[in-house]
Amino acid sequence: MVIADSKAQAIAFDLNSIDQRFIDDPYPVLANLREHDPVHINPDGSLYLTRYEDVRAVYRDRTMISDKTVAFKDKFGDGPLYTHHTTSLIFNDPPYHTTVRKLLASAFTARKLAEMEPLIGEIVDTLLDELQGAGDVDFVTAFAMRLPTEVISFMLGVPKEHRKKLRGFSLAILGALDPVVSGARLEAGNEAVSEFSDMLSDLINHRRANPEGAGQGEVLEALIFGEFEGRKLTQEELIQNCIFLLNAGHETTTSLMANGVGMLLQSPEQYRLLASTPDLVDSAVEEILRFESPLQIGNRLTTVESLIGGKTIPAGTYIHTSIAAANRDPQVFQKPDTVDITRVPNRHLAFITGIHVCLGATLARYEGRIAFRKLIERFPEMKPAGTPKRMPLARFRGFSELPVRF
Ligand code: HEM
Question: If exposure means fewest CB atoms within 10 Å of the residue's CB, which of 121, 127, 310, 385 is most exposed?
């Protein structure tokens, strides 16, 4: 009877009408789907995949594409949000995706990232100095969002006076990607793209005219002047992909920081273990990424009839991949709902796999490892200082407020 109820609930699930309970704690619902209806069909005909193997297979299948021109036309209409999301490499396929990816990758080489390491350490130290003796603070605004914003702003040459605006922009632009979006959110997203584009256009024009002014570690110049197979990015492509980089570069990493502290505060014995064995920081960062993946849902579109998890799926079907559910699949991870900072191997899909694998994964890992090592060394006894608030989004999992006592 109980199993029948669970199965009925799984089959009745609709990703387009999730509620606050799901946002606060999606994992029980995801576990139920994974067990009873892993290749779930939403009422709108789209799929929601929750098994690791199925999610991984979709990402590795080149017939499953990222193009969103049709879906975003329905969702956003014409306007800045549509232009932005359909020009970003993430929602494109080869050959455009290959060109943009190659150009961006040239700006994220191991050498360029190694140049960033001392800067990341300095930013972390400065932010932690401010936390020393600060008492109760909101960790999100005091630390989590500031580190990645400073790092990616530095790389793209965004001056200090503009950096405060970035989180608002990114939440408005990325928030519009949630499965269901209100008119007010669409308006905010469109305004954010317009304002952000104007700001970037000025920065790009300035760097175009003054290439020698770029500091060490800044990559904007490489994006402006770089070529792949004789092709440079147009001004529009540059602007939209820089907006994407700035958003991708800080929003998810902010969540990595805040989700990590939230996770450690809820698992005091793991926190003590990390504090007493800081060399576990690398595997701890991987466990944070697995346990509370900042990007919880991805999308692909089938272009041919496909077999997914034993079901035949027609061409033209939208797929939602639950990265969150895949990362807690008991077929792959032992005790998946338990935090284990010593977990090795940890083949989570937080950065996915395939041709769109996160370009900033190495940078995000650097930031996570440096931040958590220094944080734990300086503050081995942080405590919760109030009720945390989750961001009101299904696709992105992070905190809008995380009160911590230092
Ligand atoms: C913890 C932090 C991060 C997480 C969890 C994350 C996650 C992801 C995921 C899941 C994707 C693939 C989306 C898809 O195709 O469906 C992605 C793509 C991407 N990410 Fe990240 N990301 C993080 C940090 C960063 C940073 C710091 C940067 C850059 C500075 C970055 C840049 C990108 C770019 C450029 C892509 C698009 C790649 C492509 O389409 O080929 N990410 N990220």
Answer: 310
Cα 46 to averaged position of ligand 1 atoms, centre (Å) = 23
For 152, 271, 378, 380, 385, the CA distances from 133, given in Å and listed in that order, are 28, 20, 11, 14, 14
At 30 the pLDDT is: 98
Q: What is the mean pLDDT of residues 66-89?
A: 95
- What six digits make up the tokens of 8? 């009925």
State which residues form the domain around 26: 2-279+288-405
What is the C-alpha separation between 377 and 355, in angstroms, rounded?
A: 37
Amino acid, single-letter form, for residue 230:
G
CA angle 306, 312, 313 (to 5 degrees): 60
CATH code of the domain covering residue 275: 1.10.630.10
From the CB of 295, is ligand 1 less than 6 Å away?
A: yes
- Report the nearest-CA residue for atom 34 of ligand 1: 359
Specify the residue with its C-alpha closest to ligand 1, atom 16.
298
Q: How far is the CA of 177 from the centre of ligand 1 (A)?
A: 15
- The CB-based long-range contact list for 229-233 (8 Å cut-off, 24+ gap) reads 229/99, 231/99, 233/99, 233/100, 233/103
Percent of the chain with pLDDT over 70: 100
The two beta strands, 403-405 and 136-138, are antiparallel
Q: Tally the domains of the chain.
A: 1
